[in-house]
Amino acid sequence: MSEIVADPKLVAFCGLYCGACKLYLKGRCPACHENAKATWCKIRTCCLENDYSSCAACTEFEDPKDCRKFHNLFSKVISFLLRSDRRACVLQIKELGLEGHAGAMAKLRRPSIKP
Questions:
Q1: pLDDT one-digit tens code per residue, 35-51
Q2: pLDDT of residue 67
Q3: Please, how many CA atoms are within 13 Å of residue 88, restricted to the half-sphere of its CB?
Q4: 46-56 as b/e, with b when 16 or more CB fall inside 10 Å?
Q5: DSSP states of 30-78 as a string?
Q6: Is 100:32 a contact under the CB 8 Å cutoff?
Q7: How far apart, in whole angstroms, are the C-alpha atoms of residue 60 and residue 55?
Q8: Rounded alpha-carbon distances, angstroms, from residue 15 to 1, 108
Q9: Average pLDDT in the 24-39 region?
């Protein structure tokens, strides 16, 4: 298994930190930005179409919970099951930038902030 390091390139479009994900660390996932198979992800598609590094760069919605691509029933269920708060991650990116968020998540050794 790889070591958890702070790398802004490993911040997923939705704010999760791939650099602390078990699948990425085991070499079973290329991380969000490199995962061409993740065409099902509406957030990834939106960010690629708008040339955003993450949802934090979106100018249409100040708060990600106002975006239906980001905040929907599926995301609420996954958030509950995985005990993750992607919204808090996006807000942290807005506050600290991608590097700051990557550093904070690497220090926590988690892919997401806990709710």
A1: 999 999 999 999 999 99
A2: 96
A3: 11
A4: bbeeeeeebbb
A5: --GGG-TT-TT-HHHHHHHHHT-SSGGG-SS-SSGGG-TTTSSHHHHHH
A6: no
A7: 10
A8: 22, 15
A9: 95
Q: Which residue has the tokens 């955003």?
A: 52
> Residue 111 is encoded by which pair of tokens?
């892919």
User: 13 near 55, Cβ under 8 Å?
Assistant: yes
d(CA 38, CA 66): 23
Taking alpha carbons only, the member of 78, 109, 101, 115 closest to residue 12 is 101
- CA-to-CA dists, residue 86 to 1, 26, 34, 75, 95, angstroms: 24, 22, 19, 9, 14
Q: Which long-range contacts (CB under 8 A, 24 or more apart) does 60-66 make?
A: 63/87, 64/15, 64/90, 64/91
Q: Which residue has the tokens 């990600």?
A: 64
Q: What amino acid is encoded at 8 in this protein?
A: P
